[in-house]
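Posting this for the archive.
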Amino acid sequence: MSDGAVSTSVPIATGPSATVQLPSSTGAGLAVLRIALGVLWVQNAGWKVPPDFGRSGDRGLYFWASEAVEYPVVAPYSWFVETVFLPQLAIVGWAVLLAEVALGAFLVLGLATRAWAAVGIIQTTAIALSVLNAPDEWHWGYILMGVGHLVLLLSAAGRTWGIDGLLRPVWVRSPGRVARLMTVLS
């Protein structure tokens, strides 16, 4: 490279051998984005407090999910939140809490990063559909979260400073189904 930057092989496409030479700072930047999004999910799990997830005080997960009903973005989603999600909050709340903690943990560790980035896109979409029309909500935050997860999905960000990068060579050489699956998910 003529600019004197150190280069490293950072995968930006799918497939076991899909790599391109990019500056090492690109891989580091992707790792920082992955870790920051992971920390964001773990930190935000703090307001999803069992056992009632905020129902008794009209706060937390209950409050924010209720925004989907009070300020609908998409009518069928509002109906789902009102008739399925909120009545079953004691059960669904645990699923949301566990999914978001797992999402954050796996992103921080850089394990199955592409799969968890897809989960991040889905979860970000669900949150956005709950609060986009709520007063004083900054819609760009959800767009940026979604784009951040899309970048992780497309860039295989777990291969830099992540477990994906450590185990991928083993997965690529292994003939097993789980190894092939992890190769794709990494």
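The radius of gyration is 19 Å. The mean pLDDT is 88.
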